[in-house]
Amino acid sequence: MAGLSVFQKIWNDHIVANEGDRFLIYIDRHLVHEVTSPIAFRSLRERGLTVRRSDLTLATVDHNVPTTDRAKPIDDKLSAQQIEALRVNAKSNNLPLLDYQSPLQGIVHVVGPELGFVLPGVTVACGDSHTSTNGALGALGFGVGTSEIEMVLATQSLWLRKPATMLVEIRGSLRSGVTPKDVALNFIGRVGVGGCIGYAVEYGGPLVEQLSVEERMTLANLTTEAGGRTGIVSPDEKSIEFVYGKPYAPQGEEWDRAVNYWKTLKSDGDAEYDKSVDIGVSDLEPQVTWGTDPSMVCGVSERIPNPERFRDHQQRRKAEKALEYMGLKPGTRIDEINVDAVFIGSCTNARLGDLIQAARVVVGRRVSPRVKAIVVPGSQLVKRRAERLGLHRVFIEAGFEWRNSGCSLCLGMNSDRLAAGTRCVSTSNRNFENRQGFGVRTHLTSPIMAAAAALEGRFIDARELSLGNVGIGG
Amino acid sequence: MDKITKVTGVALPFAYDNVDTDQIIPAEYLKITRREGLGRHLFNNWRYLENGEPNPNFILNDQRYRNACILVAGRNFGIGSSREHAVWALADYGFKAIIAASFGDIFYENAAKNGLVCVILDDKELDTVRRAALNQPLELEVDVERLLISYSGMELRFKMDQATQNRLLTGLDDIEYTLKFYSHKIHEYEAKKPAFLGPRKVDLEGLEKAFE
């Protein structure tokens, strides 16, 4: 009999029941935020139910919160109402809430792992498509809609169709200045935004083993941009070390038992997958998106493609429409494109490692006067740790704004939204039309590429800039 | 949820692939705490000009399709954000079925939960239907029981996973159903769950104080 993949092992361990092709899967952790949950709580209340397992639920506010001064009240009435609704719902259901002024508040996919609430081998549900981020720890994350949030609140389980499995083996080593973000964007460019629809994607191969857990989070996070149902990496020493000592993680004998269990979850060498993909990354250069979905991407040394090169009629039309929206002409070199704004943030690229990398590009330099640049740490804890390393001074002295945590410009629900026509380099995950504000033109890159663009006021290959040291005696 | 066996009505041909849920309903309309009324903002940024007037070049504003209830889309419809508001907006506007070559996984699940029928056709079949709908408003029927699309004497079979088909045909409420028939199973499962998978009990207030 063939071996099992990490996905299959965790899936099998969570089957409560099945009816034909649908499975009742137990959900070990439920992460809740203010924007997609109010209607679920209301409906739960109308049924006369309360949250079944408040101890397996953690709530935070992130999607619509201001990233400016936390001491001030929230101006946006509707946002304030949503946050207040979550407070009321958390209180009446006895849920832990990382509230607006909590030193632990942050983006839901950052705080879950950071607090050890998410562990290897657990199933995670959250009303947000980037729940796949948790897969970096060897957890199985499912992004769900509001009806499913209510289902988890009520039953701590979900009816799911079993996804097909895909192994993405990443071969080669990354050149200096090339990051997992570039690997992921390049992969999405190859397979398209629908390339992984219906699949649970496992990332494997020697490069993935070498990546830090934070870097794996960037990969797992972007699985959803290729359409994947979830993304996962086998738990290993690194993921186990990552959760060690975290507040919600097991301790003592329980810890030892957990480690023994986690070690059994690694994909077997003879595991079978419905699909396997090999990608080589040794020649990869930093990637920049030029269009209005993450698959419209090219290397920094390349030129904006001519839509005519797409043989597929639909793809050609989509590219034409994208270039019109982006205000770009075919044949333009990427490094000829001027930028107006830079956003370093989001659940994709705003953990401590991301901020350190960006700060090493920025240290001792100045943001171009024509650029508005902001850094929004992934959580208040990330912010605090960055400040201990003195990173805030590096960014502020260079001319960046140093903000409080939230989803911010990743989806433009708060007042960080930009004005129409602004060209923004963003470390987030979606360059969809109007995502960062009406008419805003978004280019996705890694944190170092975004930092370099902020300094130059145009795209440049970040590898042209020497790196400084940060965090020493900071 | 109502039982759905058939959807009949005018088909609206929608031009693009990879329509993401941000386009279906922009983030600013997620600040609601009720699901009704979102239809007004369906495709908001494509549908209205900056001055708020309807964009005459956008097909939803084409009078010939004003009563359309079946959207004929392209590939990868509903990718991106998990916002169920996208499904609520489509349903509130009056759409009852979407035909596409593929759907974003989360969108597909959200749709089934709300009785919005998602039909998957291959590229070629989809193109045929779209062309037929482009020339003139096309009356189309989607039969969920027989998994059959029919229009102007044409018939096309489509596949749908059994779970989704059952959900549409029975109109079952998952929560009610699960609590009624599977509560004991969930209890049994929980009883077997090893304690080490936690989470550990944490005094959150104390933890917050430690980080202030």
How would you describe this protein?
The complex is a heterodimer of chains A (474) and B (212). Chain A has two domains: 6-275, 2-Layer Sandwich (Aconitase, domain 3), CATH 3.30.499.10; 287-464, Aconitase, domain 3 (2-Layer Sandwich). In chain A, strand 13 (287-289) and strand 14 (297-299) form a beta hairpin. Chain A has 15 helices and 19 strands. By secondary structure, chain A is an alpha/beta fold. The N and C termini of chain A lie far apart (55 Å). The mean pLDDT of chain A is 97. In chain A, strands 5-4-3-6-7 form a five-stranded parallel beta sheet, with helices on both faces. Chain A has helices at 6-13, 38-46, 77-93, 108-114, 146-155, 180-191, 206-210, 213-221, 237-243, 252-263, 313-326, 352-362, 380-388, 391-398, 447-456, and strands at residues 15-19, 22-26, 29-33, 57-60, 97-98, 123-126, 140-143, 157-161, 164-171, 199-204, 230-232, 275-280, 287-289, 297-299, 341-344, 372-375, 401-402, 423-426, 441-444. Chain B is α/β, with parallel strands linked by helices and 212 residues long. Chain B folds into two domains: 6-170, Aconitase, domain 4 (Alpha-Beta Barrel), CATH 3.20.19; 174-210, no CATH class. The mean pLDDT of chain B is 95. Chain B has a seven-stranded mixed beta sheet. In chain B, helix 3 (85-93) links the parallel strand 2 (70-72) and strand 3 (97-100). Chain B starts with 5 loop residues before the first strand and ends with a helix. Chains A and B meet through strand 1, strand 2, helix 2, helix 3 and helix 5 of A and helix 4, helix 6, helix 7 and helix 8 of B.
Averaged pLDDT of chain B: 95
Tell me the β content of chain B.
Answer: 15-25%
Please tell me how large the radius of gyration of chain A is. 21 Å
CATH class of the largest domain in chain B: Alpha Beta
In short:
The complex is a heterodimer of chains A (474) and B (212). Chain A is α/β, with parallel strands linked by helices and 474 residues long.
Primary descriptors:
heterodimer; A: 474 residues; alpha/beta; Aconitase, domain 3; 5-stranded parallel sheet; 19 strands; 31% helix; B: 212 residues; Aconitase, domain 4; 2 domains; 7-stranded mixed sheet; globular
